[in-house]
Each structure stands twice: as structure tokens, then as C-alpha cells.
Amino acid sequence: MKRATLFSAALLALALTHQATDVQAQQKEKTVTVGGAPMYPSKNIVENAVNSKDHTTLVAAVKAAGLVETLSGKGPFTVFAPTNAAFDMLPAGTVENLVKPENKATLTNILTYHVVAGKLDGKAIWKMLDKDGKAELTTVQGEKLTVWKKGKDLYIKDSKGGDAKITISDVHQSNGVIHVIDHVLMP
Hints:
The structure is a single chain. The chain has 187 residues and is α+β, with helices and mostly antiparallel strands. It has two domains: 1-30; 31-181, FAS1 domain, CATH 2.30.180.10. Helix content is 39%, strand content 26%. The protein has eight helices and nine strands. The chain has helices at residues 2-28, 45-49, 56-65, 68-72, 84-88, 94-98, 104-112, 122-128; strands at residues 32-34, 37-39, 77-82, 115-117, 134-138, 144-150, 153-157, 163-173, 176-181. The strands form two sheets. A seven-stranded mixed β-sheet has the order 4-3-9-8-7-6-5. A hairpin with a 2-residue loop joins strand 1 and strand 2 (37-39). Helix 3 packs across helix 7. The longest helix has 27 residues, at 2-28. Residues 20-26 have low confidence and may be disordered.
């Protein structure tokens, strides 16, 4: 009986030490705060996004499209992540309609239009710009986005001519990088 109790106590101590080490490691990581929550480079895109109060609509859409497993995968991915306010700019009822099961293909098409294969931080994107201050990126969905600069800011033009400003860049993840944007991109 004593041996079992000692063994249980040792396992508990080991678990608590491991948990404390994880917390200490996360505290040492260079984080960016998005939506009131620190984004840890040791966590993947989905693990971080679920903590951002500014991205609840995006997270719900990713779940409805069945992309959680993909965006939790190895990657690397560059994600242009629209805020809740960006989704709110869409015509009334658009989001509610898109998350319906019968519209999964359309929703997936829109969401994958916000993802580029590879890890493109802000510095890498700036280096890609041509003499006119523009660069084309091919999305996972297959269509192109045009990145362009205005002063010290980067914008993204979608295929319909809409622009989104990168408001927070270089939110590093274990499987890529997120850039927060202020509009939803439309293929």
C-alpha cells in the first residue's frame, strides 16, 4: 500500500514538474498578443487562433469547413486571418449562410483563399515586392493574391479587387505564420 502511494505521489510530482516546465517555456517564448491572448510560437495555428477573441468567427468557419486537422498539421502555412470585424463587414447573413453544411465547399474555397503554402513572414513578403511594390502569391485554393505596399503598410488585393490591410504581422506558429487582416478576401 505504501509503495503504491509513493509511486502515485512520484507520478503526480513528475506531472506537475512537466506542467510547470511547459508553462515556464511558454513564458520565455516571444509572443504576439492577438485578440487579447498571447500567441505562442510553440503552438500550431489552430491552438493559438482559438484563444483570440478577435477570431471567433474565423475559428467557427474553419471548424464548419472541416479544416481544423489541416491547419493543425505540419504545414508550413501562411494564413491571412480576417478578424470578426472583417466578417461583420460582409452583407448581413453571409457568414450564417456559409457555415451551413450545404455550403461547405464554398466556405472551404473562401478560407483556403486566405492560406499560402510556406512560411512567409513580413520580411519575406517585403523582399518579394517588385520595383512597383507588388508581388503575387498563389493561395492553397489555387487563385492569386496581390500583395502591395503603401508607405510602411502591406495590403492584399483579392481577385475581386477588394483590399485588406495587414494590421498585425508575423504571428509565428509552430506550423507557419499568421498575418491579421481587416477584410475578408474573396476569390
